[in-house]
């Protein structure tokens, strides 16, 4: 049974192919179109998924969309009715688009599918899941657990903004919901907007900025914006927000509450106020998550917890939930956002529509999230030559030795190997790597290579067998979705002068043996690297450890700010030539910047719309 799951038309369109319950392929459309958060119909992602198994779209038994457009249209109408006449302007602008495109989304999907496979009638083969059921399915069905509580939180689906579900074997049932407009994801996005970052892409910047400030406004948020109950349920005071009826997240009353206007990212610098706002909303989000998970553990037992939805990408909150210990085990879907809804929709169809059985073997079924396209060595050489690259071809041993030596010498390395990752994190298949021992590596990568804000933290990729010796975590974190502290014996004692620094100035202090991945609160967003799922990346870190004694590398996504993660060898070469990366390794091909044709150098700093 071949089932194709789709998400599209909002942000992060994607396709995922499931055959007899096995996840065969999954990819986001942005990786092919090179348009960040591309929301268009995922034609190229579909083409990739089908090519991975050599089948045509006609051979697919069901196509499943990740949400129900009619329910979303119902929410739009009821919301505008409830708030009328306020918001008529945005209503009048939105309604023609909904009537033309989204209300008749089944017709639109059938037309798009028919354009690929014109001989098939898709009306009987096209299914629709619900948004939060798709999220829940993406978390539970690939998890290593036979039984689990599943918590999903995001901005909004059709009506639902958060759900609790119980999974047992083949069964998955949502038992509780929170409904629009009361939403933790939208609350966090309101502060993303207020601090001058882009909604639906800048939330992780707020999380990264939070440790530079203090949560001075957390009580103001709890006293005015959110009525939070002991069990984690809540209601928002909508008089402070404008997302129901307007075109912005917050209004003047919100700005008056905190005493400053919305930051304009083009003209206004980040100040200690914005850092404190980030710290405050982060603390409130963590408190909501802790109350929710504690209440669910009391009600259903504290065995296994699965997480999905955009809020599950908040790795700091995830780390707090893990250390809180309400649940014994936690598993988080690596593609927790809407892209993962495509996979969840396919799994809903397999397990609930078709009745297919689960295979639970103690390991998750995501295959390390390496579900995207790979390129054979011959393809790599042909494509790089076509792009004008000057490269040498090395044996596996020579390639690992040269790459580890470059890293140990303090160089930044572009690393493209095997199948591309599914989800927003680079996990050692499409990565920029660096030496975590370097006190200047974080600033170098941010400013000279990624062209992004200097405060942004980087993640350590650490050998799974060594994680407990470097971090206060003794478990798996393969998807970079848990934060834990650097072990005390690896930390450096701060001087009085360093302790007195404020805000971004804190970056200049060396805090540990691995300063490039140690945040200012001594935390780190950890990726454990497993030989079973990524043997080549594991071998590289092992070689670096043999040279330096350090089983850790800086791992960040292979792109510049505003660009999707690279997909093809040509993408990798362009990014290499548009940044200050010194060495590029694609398969067994090695390219040094100093040996490239200088006429191919690109200006990547302004090549993409900033995220």
Mind explaining what this structure looks like?
The protein has 611 residues and is α/β, with parallel strands linked by helices. Among the domains are: 2-131 and 338-360, 2-Layer Sandwich (Nucleotidyltransferase, domain 5), CATH 3.30.420; 377-600, Alpha-Beta Complex (DHBP synthase), CATH 3.90.870.20. The chain contains 20 helices and 21 strands. It has a 9-stranded mixed beta sheet with strand order 13-21-20-14-15-19-16-18-17, with helices on both faces. A 5-stranded mixed beta sheet has the order 3-2-1-4-5. Helix 12 links the parallel strand 11 and strand 12 (329-332).
Shape: globular
Tell me the fraction of residues in β-strands, as a range: 15-25%
CATH C-level label of one domain: Alpha Beta
Compute the number of helices: 20
Characteristic terms for this protein:
611 residues; alpha/beta; Nucleotidyltransferase, domain 5; DHBP synthase; 20 helices; 21 strands
Topology, please?
Elements: E1 2-7, E2 14-19, E3 22-28, H1 30-33, H2 43-53, E4 62-65, H3 69-83, H4 88-102, H5 105-116, E5 126-128, H6 131-140, E6 147-153, E7 160-168, E8 171-179, H7 184-194, H8 203-209, H9 218-225, E9 226-228, E10 234-236, H10 252-258, H11 272-300, E11 304-308, H12 315-324, E12 329-332, H13 338-353, H14 377-387, E13 392-393, H15 396-408, E14 413-416, E15 430-434, H16 441-449, E16 459-463, H17 467-470, E17 482-485, H18 496-499, E18 523-529, H19 535-548, E19 552-557, H20 569-577, E20 583-586, E21 589-592
Parallel strand pairs: 1-4, 4-5, 6-11, 11-12, 14-20, 16-18
Antiparallel strand pairs: 1-2, 2-3, 6-7, 7-8, 9-10, 13-21, 14-15, 15-19, 16-19, 17-18, 20-21
Helix pairs in contact: 3-4, 6-13, 7-11, 9-11, 11-12, 14-20, 15-19
